[in-house]
Amino acid sequence: MMVNPRAYLAEAIATYGLVFFGPLSVILAIASFGEELTTQSVFFISIGHGAAIGLMVYAFGHISGAHINPAVTIPMMITRKIGIADGIGYIISQLIGAVAAAATLKAILPELGAKVNFATQGGPSDLINNSIGSGFAVEAVLTFFLVTVIFMVAVHKKATPGIQGLAIGGMIFLIHLVGVPLTGASVNPARTFGPALISGFWEFHWMYWAAPILGGIIAGLIMNYVFVKKAEQEA
């Protein structure tokens, strides 16, 4: 069964929300706390991304499921929670929303934003010796836990109702708290693609697609076939 076309618009708006408020929190953190990452700036960025996702989940979860992320939609397609055509529509909508948000930031804060490539993630940091392998692992593991939380609080039939936004937003907060100093914490190809397209900064871009999608698929398969299916059979 195809979803209502309004779901595509919901995905575009929700992803716009993430890629507006998330990168804006990065730009403002740099302006306020300096270009070196500080405890304050990481906390500020983590709140910015976590709140944006949590609130968008509450706003649009009942319309589209609020995937906001190709690395969430692809596992949903593989586990047949959404059809292939709709999944592709979701991903296109997410990318459009992300590009529109990054373009808005360029219009509002052209110089400040350009300093940080409109918050495009910059690849593996010095903390992990600029290692692509370590960076890939970080992004894959962080996305694994994001998709785990999504399946267990938003898809599982026996999940506590009404906590989706809090749980998923909280996970995004935690991911950014530990991930920003290591890889910039993408866990979302759309979140990286929008700012990359607007800034023209494409270094390590493949990693921010491949690692989150791999981590998301592994989580989706395990959560679906070990936990979610069992609850559906019992329901």
Automatic annotation (TrEMBL):
One of its GO terms (molecular function) is channel activity. Pfam families: MIP. It is a multi-pass membrane protein. Belongs to the MIP/aquaporin (TC 1.A.8) family. The chain crosses the membrane at residues 12-34, 40-61, 82-105, 132-154, 166-186, 206-228. Keywords: Membrane, Transmembrane, Transmembrane helix. It is found in: Membrane. The keyword Transcription regulation does not apply. Coiled coil: none annotated. This is MIP family channel protein. It comes from the Archaea. GO terms for cellular component: plasma membrane. It comes from Candidatus Nitrosopumilus salarius BD31. Its main location: membrane.
